[in-house]
């Protein structure tokens, strides 16, 4: 093995035991074994039986915990589940070590096919937004609506603040970074992550900060933590460079599902200027911008994101009642601009 290669990771069945992941009040944590992957699944019991299913996909370095603030705000309209992508949260690494966007998308598709929960209201943030876009493009039968929070879609001019994250994709950088940061405490790491991901880190409560520190301590004990981060970052970069029908922007144009796009004005990882391009690319989309939000609006302003989704859901149902098919990916009739309050702006747009 050369000095620039990532170290090999022990099989999932011989990984050391670490502290249990946090489970918020009202949540349940389980796992599903699928061909090549085992996925940890976080869920909440819906307010009543028969509600449509929703599935949430987190971003790079995140986990299903990233959706714990949003899910309870929607439990009266959807039956929510959030997955940990392979190698993240409580999910072990994939058997083949493949962390590409396509591999993550296959894991989502395998889960939906195996559980029969589709078509779902599919949510994705950052890396999860790219994954969700690919799922919606290649398997429209599995997606009822699509909600993307700061999706990691290709940018020609990447923000300077996003460069260090992108550098993780370069062979040898992850091991180098682990050596450089060996003396950093979990608290220091969490503050750095929050500074990067939040529009205003002061919005994080002391309890939320403590929980984040405990989760960081847990992750750092996992021997595959940096491997999963580096290979997933490499997967994002590879997807950015991919053209033709497999390019993410081309796949965005193929999405049939009514789409909600959420962008933060203080996002340091995904350029705010990408909001309008996304709204033009997705053929049946509405755009919600939150000026004070960063990269994880569903954690910073969950009420705003929940309201925007409720309006998407209501308009989609209304269009079905007005004569549309009601099938997954059926186009909805744009309604009036969403009034989400809190300095948020929203608009309906068609590509």
From TrEMBL:
GO molecular function: hydrolase activity
Pfam families: Abhydrolase_6 (PF12697)
Residue ranges of domain AB hydrolase-1 in the record: 55-306
Residue segments, region Disordered: 319-351
Superkingdom as given in the UniProt entry: Bacteria
Keywords: Hydrolase
Protein name, UniProt field: Alpha/beta hydrolase
Organism field: Streptomyces pimonensis
């Amino acid at each position: 093995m050369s000095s620039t290669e990532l170290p090999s990771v022990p099989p999932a069945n011989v990984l050391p035991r670490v502290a249990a992941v946090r489970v918020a009040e009202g949540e349940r944590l389980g796992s599903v074994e699928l061909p090549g992957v085992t996925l940890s699944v976080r869920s909440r019991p819906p307010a009543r039986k028969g509600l449509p299913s929703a599935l949430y996909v987190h971003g790079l370095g995140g986990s299903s915990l990233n959706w714990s603030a949003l899910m309870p705000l929607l439990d009266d309209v959807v039956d929510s589940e959030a997955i940990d992508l392979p190698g993240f949260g409580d999910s072990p690494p994939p058997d083949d070590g493949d962390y590409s966007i396509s591999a993550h998308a296959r894991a989502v598709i395998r889960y939906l096919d195996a559980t029969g929960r589709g078509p779902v209201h599919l949510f994705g943030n950052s890396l999860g937004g790219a994954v969700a876009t690919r799922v919606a493009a290649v398997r429209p039968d599995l997606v009822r609506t699509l909600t993307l929070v700061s999706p990691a879609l290709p940018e020609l001019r990447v923000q300077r603040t996003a460069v260090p994250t992108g550098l993780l994709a370069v062979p040898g950088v992850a091991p180098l970074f682990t050596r450089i940061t060996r003396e950093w405490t979990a608290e220091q790491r969490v503050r750095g992550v929050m500074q990067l991901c939040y529009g205003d880190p002061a919005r994080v409560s002391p309890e939320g900060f403590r929980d984040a520190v405990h989760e960081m301590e847990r992750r750092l004990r996992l021997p595959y933590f940096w491997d999963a981060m580096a290979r997933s970052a490499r997967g994002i970069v590879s997807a950015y460079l991919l053209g033709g029908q497999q390019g993410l922007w081309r796949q965005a144009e193929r999405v049939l599902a009514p789409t909600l796009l959420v962008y933060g004005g203080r996002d340091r990882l995904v350029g705010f200027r990408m909001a309008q391009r996304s709204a033009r690319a997705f053929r049946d989309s509405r755009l919600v911008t939150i000026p004070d939000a960063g990269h994880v609006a569903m954690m910073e302003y969950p009420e705003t994101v929940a309201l925007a989704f409720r309006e998407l859901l209501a308009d989609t149902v209304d269009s079905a009642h007005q004569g549309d098919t009601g099938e997954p990916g059926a186009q909805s009739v744009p309604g009036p601009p969403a009034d989400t309050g809190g300095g948020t702006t929203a608009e309906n747009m068609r590509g």
